[in-house]
Structure formats: C-alpha cells, structure tokens
Amino acid sequence: MGRDRVDAVELPPTTGGHRVKAWTTLVEPRELLPRLGDEGLVVIDASADLGSPGAARARFLQAHVPGARHADLDHDLSDHRLRGQGRHPWPAAGDFEGRLAEWGIAPEHQVVVYDAADGALAAARLWWMLHVLGHQRVAVLDGGWNAWRAESLPVASGEARPRERIDHPPGRAFDDSRLFDAGDVQAHLDRGGMLVDARAAERFRGEVEPLDRVAGHVPGAVNRPYALNLHQGRFKPAGTLRDEFRSLLGDTPPGDVVVMCGSGVTACHHLLAMAHAGLHGAGLFTGSWSGWIEDPSRPVATGD
C-alpha cells in the first residue's frame, strides 16, 4: 500500500546543534537503521506478555534492535501501588520522569519505541506517555519487532550499553486534560462526547472476556477494534486512517473523543493512528474497562 506521511517534521536543532528530521508518530525500519548509534537517539523495546511476567524481558535479552533497552509494562509504565484504576494504573509524572532519567532520555532526544505486537503492547502506550508529558520527538517503529526481523535487519543480545543518567528540570507534568478517569468519562458522555472502545468486537459485545471479571462495555461507547488500524501488520496510510476515523466520528471533532480498551494500553494504538492521520486532541480513559468495573455500581452494557 502507498504511504502518505504526516509524521516526519522539522523541529529545532538538538543540543548538538544538528537539525535532523524528527519522527513524531511512525518510523519505518529502514529509516531507523542508519540512525542507530546516534547519541541523540534512544530505542526502547516495550514488548509485553500479559500472561507470563518476565517472558518479554527474557526474549529481549535474547534478541533486540541494536542499542535498545527494555521497558516493562508493569514496572516502568504502570503503578500497581494504586487501587481502583484498572489493571495498568497510570503512574505519576514524577515516577515516569525517574524512569526517563534512568534510560538517559532528555526532552531533545529522539525516542523510537517498538514491541512485538504491531505497537499494541505496549509501544503505543509509551509513545502516548511521552507525548502527554510534552516530548515531541517520539515515534513507534511501524510493524515493530516482526517487521524488523522480516527485513533481516541487525539484531543484538544482552543488555544495551548504559546511557548517562539525565536529571530533568522540575515542573514537567502530564497533560491532565487528555487523561480521563471513570468520573471524567461519565461526565464526558453526559455532555455528548464520544467514547471509542478499541477492544475486539466480541469483547465489546460481552460475548467473551478473557481478562476481566465482568464482560461488556461502558454504556454509550462505540467500538472500533484497534486491529482495524493495520494492514498486513503495518499502519494503514494516513489518508486511509483519516477517512475511516472521520466516518466513525461523524461531526464529532477529535478533541471531543476519548478512547479506551481493557486497561489503557491498546487504546493508545488509536491515539497513535489518529495522530498519524492528523486528527489530534483525543484523550485516554486511563483505567479503561478494568477501571470502570472496579465500582460494581457503574452500569454495564452488552451487545452492539
């Protein structure tokens, strides 16, 4: 399929004074290859395995994009000390900044994230976390690890060479206007906003539920499975995604859209697809379905 690109932009020079193309949504494997080893580039493997803790890291140590370091969905991108906020509670900005410091990521660095599931677990989540923290130079590797291997590109094993820890200036915070809890979502629906659920159709309808104790969906939500953003494991062209989302949204502007999934992970795939399509401003229900059902008094819908 042809690709019309809206995700490579010119940003101000890095601290080294070099003006390079910044990737802000997606980057192709062969675009990334010649930049490997640049001091201004940080590659993160965010592969996850919901059913087997530690398995994704073990696979990372066996093989990964050269220079990449590993981000763990549960330990680095969630805060399980929090209760009532779903299976992957959104961490505090300060804690996330600490992780970025450990990984040697400063605001001027280009970050490229990938996983082994076409961006759905949990590369798009990390992309979104950086995005709402105000980090501009961050993109997801289109096709992820599978695309990298399919093109027979170089791989490495073991731990990456440590980067120098970078302490960030205080004051950066997540853009809370783009992050919604259950109460915010209900108020959003009450005032006519749209809620888009990225789970598979059978989970949305409540026919199956492999992960959460209650099946169904938030009343008033509409369904678009995240897999519809892809064609043969790659994101569809920007124009195609733009047409598909506009058909779904109708007259609703992107800024009046909140996306959700099971636990606030795969929903970020929609946020990435919309950004790639030039549709900016949507928000995330961070707790998503697993957070919604934490309170048994909240209503549950089934069917279409």
Automatic annotation (TrEMBL):
Superkingdom of the organism of origin: Bacteria
Family annotation (Gene3D superfamilies): Rhodanese-like domain
Signal peptide (UniProt feature, chain positions): none
Name of this protein: Sulfurtransferase
One Pfam entry name: Rhodanese
Keywords of the record: Repeat, Transferase
Organism: Marilutibacter spongiae
Residue ranges constituting the Rhodanese domain according to the UniProt record: 37-157, 189-301
PANTHER family per record: SULFURTRANSFERASE (PTHR11364:SF27), THIOSULFATE SULFERTANSFERASE (PTHR11364)
One Gene Ontology molecular-function label: thiosulfate-cyanide sulfurtransferase activity
Keyword Repeat: yes
